[in-house]
Design brief:
Length: about 230
């Protein structure tokens, strides 16, 4: 009984109307599973979630039409590769969702409905489990500290005593020049010590950087909506 999951409902590169409806419905169901799992504990746009629902059906139709035709299949693969250059880069989570939707669409288009549904449930379940376990999450309390300093200031040794006084951990993420090279802008990821006052930290830092701009806030992941 279990082995029937790994058999195709299509044969010989041909399909009937009922078989087409079955594989399309399966692809649609896989898309709903993937999109539903992605919406939980993830930032998303409406258009991207809709894409996750529709993409398996689109891929399924392409595969079912070119089934058995190697030349057309290679041409379609080349067309899909153009999508990479016409879209925003996206985050790893979004790219994974796109590849998962395409993979189950491919499986459904070849008639392997059981594999498509099983793989959708398996990967979506593992994805949700990792999110609930906060696997790979950044350190608790991590914030972004940005400090502007004049070009003639030795910033490499200027703030170390203050950092050790107020911060449990810190690391330089980026150093760049700004304002026509007259200023440096330092970007650090920091974790404040327990009971440390962020106001006292900023007050002490601004006495060291000539009262130039300083900002402290939560880390926000830069992204473009897909």
């Amino acid at each position: 009984m279990f082995n029937t999951i790994f058999t195709s409902v299509l044969s010989g590169g041909t399909f009937s109307g009922s078989e087409f409806v079955i594989v399309t419905a399966a692809a649609f169901l896989c898309g709903l599973i993937i999109a539903g799992a992605y919406r939980l504990k993830s930032r998303y746009s409406d258009s991207f979630v809709t894409t996750l629902v529709l993409l398996p059906m689109i891929v399924e139709l392409v595969i079912i039409l070119v089934n058995g035709n190697l030349g057309v299949g290679v041409a379609v693969a080349g067309a899909f590769s153009l999508v990479r250059f016409r879209s925003a880069p996206g985050r790893g989570q979004e790219i994974t969702g796109i590849f998962l939707a395409m993979a189950v669409g491919l499986a459904a288009g070849m008639g392997y409905i059981g594999i498509a549904l099983l793989f959708s449930l398996l990967v979506s379940g593992v994805n949700l489990l990792l999110k609930f376990l906060h696997f790979g999450a950044e350190s608790k309390g991590m914030q972004m500290l940005k400090i502007a300093v004049p070009e003639n200031l030795d910033y490499e040794n200027r703030f170390e005593d203050t950092f050790r006084k107020y911060l449990k951990e810190y690391s330089y993420e980026d150093v760049r020049t700004t304002n026509m090279g007259s200023l440096y802008k330092l970007t650090l990821s920091v974790v404040l010590k327990e009971n440390a006052s962020s106001r006292e930290l900023l007050d002490e830092l601004r006495t060291l950087n000539g009262n130039l701009d300083i900002s402290l806030g939560r880390m926000v992941e830069a992204r473009e909506a897909l």
